[in-house]
Amino acid sequence: MQDSELIQQAYAAQRRAYVPYSHFSVGAALETEDGQVFLGCNIENATYTPTNCAERTAFFKAISEGQRSFRQIAIVGGYLDGEFAKGKEAGYCPPCGVCRQVMAEFCDPKTFRILLARTPEDYISYSLEELLPTGFGPGNLL
Ligand code: THU
User: Fold this and answer.
1) How far apart are CA 97 and CA 133, in angstroms?
2) pTM over 0.85
3) 51 CB under 6 A from ligand 1?
């Protein structure tokens, strides 16, 4: 799938974010090796810590549907709520450390791509290895 198409799907997921506390909406579109796309948004909680990031929502949805092989993920984030968005340009939204670790569990750090987009055309593509160097993964337990 074209990068811009996957990014557009991340924007669709972003609109479903449940963010009454931070007002910061994140969307992720995760493409499997066989070309299926699983969407995720962040889901916050009144007690804060159960909050789930968009990326992990997408991964957990895909894994619970039997997927194990992933090609890339597109991530977008920013303030959609008029009051909070005022005057703020959307920046790139890098995945948090916990999400990077979840990616490391299921993805090849050399080949898995992470697309951070500000617009469908303005994005940076990283490998997982670039964002999680010297990570601890399943290989360390063998
Ligand atoms: N968040 C994500 O969903 N993914 C990221 O990559 C960074 C942060 C969420 C968590 C929380 O709901 C909000 O953004 C602010 O931290």
Assistant:
1) 11
2) yes
3) yes
